[in-house]
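Reminder to self: keep the SMILES exactly as supplied, no canonicalising. Ligand is adenosine-5'-diphosphate.
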Amino acid sequence: MRIQAISDLGSARRLVVKIGSALLVEDGKPASDRLKSLARDLAELRERGTEIIVVSSGAIALGAARLDLPKGGRASLADAQAAASVGQVALAQLWAEALGEHDLLAAQMLVTLGDLEDRRRYLNAAATIERLLETGAVPVVNENDSVATEEIRFGDNDRLAARVAQAARADAVLLLSDVDGLFDRPPDQEGAVLIERVEGVTPEILAMADTGSSSGIGSGGMASKLEAAKIAGRAGIMLAIVNGTRLPPIASAVAANRGTVFLPVRSDSARKAWLGGRLACEGALTVDAGCVSALARGASLLAAGVTRVEGDFQRGDLVQIDGPDGERLGQGLVEYNAEECRAIMGMREGEQEAQLGYVPRAAVVHRDHMVRS
Ligand SMILES: Nc1ncnc2c1ncn2[C@@H]1O[C@H](COP(=O)(O)OP(=O)(O)O)[C@@H](O)[C@H]1O
Ligand SMILES: N[C@@H](CCC(=O)OP(=O)(O)O)C(=O)O
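Structure tokens returned for the bound complex:
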């Protein structure tokens, strides 16, 4: 069944539920009533046949309090990593107890960006989730903050939740936040209006989100939720943002049918969805206007159309593809390393072999390994 509305969520075959720090941690302590109420909601969904995967924030907020470290953006990376190490133990214990009250077994999965960027590791994570669900356990996922560095981390569990939903082939992602959904401007501004339904995360939609978290605890903000909606949408997965402050968090939101629903506008193949949801480009190729038209027709990216090469990437790495004005056109797996790309850019096929020293490949980025933004 395609999930088209918040009121449909109870019919989802497989649902990823993400809960932010601002809901789970209050003044450095667990919001126990809310966690217990959420666990009851999840147990009821399970009873009715929905498989559940939880993505839970809160490790840094809990750990920072226990270590008496600065919270939010003021914390250093080392502080955040130390806090996450301490907080994750507490967070896992809280989930084990809350789900255990309903005879549900919590299964902790800590993932790094690389676990979902690398295709082999992505499929490995997908297999683990599948096996856990088969056993009846409830995967409780968080970023492995204690080892994530600035450059290679999700940094927010919204996009992580969308990537987990892709890997798990879920029907929907539910982001529980401290706001009713996406408003046409930051909700504290005069006249802000709730956007109830979005089909396609356009630049206009992205512009509505003021980055950063209002709670000062969370790190995702609305911008990361919109990026998450784009990632989910590529895989044909609906994403909803609802207010999780009311108890019971999910049942209240489903009954009210209030929030923002992002409906998928395409359904790439599983591999293309994985490729489109990748977040870590190792370089960028700028192409000319002729190439922009060719890519729009579904062609591969040829060296003749490349006007600029940025980064120091290897063959097989993910690179961003930009138009002449810097607009992001898409991303894909590059067939040459950066040095070779610089050597053959702008050249027709016949000129390339002399530069490469071997017969050139069909394209710089083949259309089968490319997704458009
Ligand atoms: N256009 C917008 N619509 C809704 N919320 C917005 C918007 N722009 C900024 N925000 C802020 O984003 C916050 C939600 O993000 P965040 O605090 O990270 O929550 P979470 O802990 O769920 O990730 C809201 O509390 C709100 O103040
Ligand atoms: N991995 C981090 C959560 C990062 C995050 O996305 O937080 P939030 O914006 O509160 O959902 C933690 O456990 O604290």
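Points to follow up:
Residues 244 and 263 are 20 Å apart (CA to CA).
The mean pLDDT is 92.
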